[in-house]
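Hi V.,

You were right to ask for the full record rather than a summary. Here it is.
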Amino acid sequence: MPFDSPRENLPAEEPVPYASAAARPGRPWVEEAVAYDGVLLAGFGGPEGQDDVIPFLRNVTRGRGIPDERLEEVAHHYRHFDGISPINAQNRALKQAIEAEIARRGIGLPVYWGNRNWEPYLEGAVQEAADAGHTTLLALATSAYSSFSSCRQYREDFARVLESTGLAGTVTIDKIRQFFDVPGFVAPFVDGVRAAVAGFRRQGIASGAIRVLFSTHSIPLADAERSGPRDVDFGDGGAYAAQHRAVAEVVMAAVDDDVAWELVYQSRSGPPSQPWLEPDVNDAIAALPAQGVEAVAIVPLGFVSDHMEVLWDLDTEALQAAEEAGLTAVRTPTPGVDPSYVSGLVDLIEERLRGTPVAERPHETALGPWFDVCRPGCCENVRAGFKPAAAGVAP
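Predicted structure:
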């Protein structure tokens, strides 16, 4: 492996704020049963009408001083779809699917759903849980990988909400581990890539002329390098890139080792002077014909459902780039509410309810199973530094 195991050289135990008694000591994995009485489904949120778009984007960019004129420049993605992001509908469907699987297993936990950036907000979800007497919550964030925006920012949201509602000290919030390599998350990508490659071959396209591009959201290079535990060397791009590479390797090993693949990035939004993870998916597509590639499968590996970055950046821009390059192209599915994915998420809930020993926890890569309790200094926000956060050792 090009990096040390994340189990090595871990710091001594330290207390974890806002946590259950079992998670509070700060051990990487909680291997004792916890009597959670509610699940908190935490989402990003999205507008559900044209009038919502700019207020939503103000929420997303709060604290950065970006004027509405500049926000309107990026609002056209939402305007194109009548101001409606699909993400809230997808989270409603995911909530219902999780509730159904929880009921099928007889677990008996309610699921509360709240967003960071749009209604229903996390504040309301946590207050609703507390009002119902559910004060030991296990959070499930709708993001599989480690970075500030996909993990630590949710943890900071939980701390902020507990303080702003006055429920700190009454409600505790733990968080299930990052699930990038959980079998139920990986399986839909395997199915999608396998179907795409088989479809290309039915068209007479040889393996050497097929390319698989695994796409995820680009983030600033400085943020990527700070993703994951700070005392572990994950190589270029930190834990964020390492996790994606590891999952892509698993997918391709299950599909066909003869087909070449590449990890690419999308949806960059920063200034040109700021280094972000590269290559961009559209640049990678434009370069493929010169490499003898005839067909490309675009895999939204960094996304759990078909939200705006998938519908616009991949289904619109990337597929158009492939058409312009003369390539046969398909975009493979996201997990969405695939039964394997939903079952895998509920497995993770049961894992914490039972205190499953780390040696018995399923994972598809050598990086897993990831931590229940985030490590000190994990996923720092370069711009703002560390803020109070739940579900991890301070800072």
